[in-house]
């Protein structure tokens, strides 16, 4: 209730923050890791898993680093590139701010260790705790409906949600959606 009251106040300004663009996620990762570029697999993983949320991106990187899943290499100028080097590395110079390359990190590259399967990476505990804390702040009815919606996935129709909800909650769900 307090949040709703504060939001309705004329003294409160609400800002909707959009998600980061994929290029910004890569730029942030390069900046956080102190490198000039990251592998395409790492970029794809961060873009998909963070959904543009900078906090999620940072926590995912922290998890990968903390579990020793990343390799840091130095690319020497003038060296012959391996056949697949160009397909492996996403150049941050195309995506990052000019300040990144001025810091002298443009020769450092971050890749995923060859023995790491990104498909098996679980959501870091810190992100789980954040999601659960937000869920716990909801009213019991909202929590129940959110749990059913989570089973369906990130995109669904209200008809599908109504179909799987227990009969006792169907009328109450309409009230929740009207808010």
TrEMBL record:
Give the top-rank taxon of the lineage listed in the UniProt record for this protein: Eukaryota
- Please provide the record's keywords in A-Z order: ATP-binding, Nucleotide-binding
Which Gene Ontology terms cover its molecular function?
A: adenylate cyclase activity; ATP binding
Q: Does the keyword Nucleotide-binding apply?
A: yes
One GO cellular-component annotation of the UniProt record comes to: cytoplasm
Signal sequence bounds: none
Asked if the Swiss-Prot or TrEMBL record annotates the protein with the keyword Zinc, the reply is no
What name does this protein carry?
Adenylate cyclase type 10
């Amino acid at each position: 209730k307090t949040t709703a009251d504060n939001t309705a106040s004329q003294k409160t300004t609400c800002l909707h923050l959009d998600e980061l663009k994929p290029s910004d996620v890569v730029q942030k990762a390069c900046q956080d890791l102190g490198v000039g570029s990251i592998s395409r697999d790492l970029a794809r993983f961060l873009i998909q898993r963070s959904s543009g949320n900078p906090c999620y991106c940072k926590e995912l990187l922290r998890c990968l680093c903390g579990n020793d899943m990343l390799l840091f290499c130095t690319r020497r100028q003038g060296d012959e590139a391996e056949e697949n080097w160009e397909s492996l590395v996403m150049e941050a110079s195309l995506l990052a701010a000019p300040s990144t390359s001025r810091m002298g990190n443009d020769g450092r590259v971050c890749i995923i260790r060859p023995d790491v399967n990104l498909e098996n990476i679980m959501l870091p505990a810190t992100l789980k705790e954040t999601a659960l804390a937000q869920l716990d702040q909801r009213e019991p009815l909202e929590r129940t409906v959110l749990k059913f919606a989570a089973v369906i996935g990130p995109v669904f129709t209200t008809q599908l949600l109504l179909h799987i909800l227990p009969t006792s909650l169907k009328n109450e769900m309409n009230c929740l959606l009207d808010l």
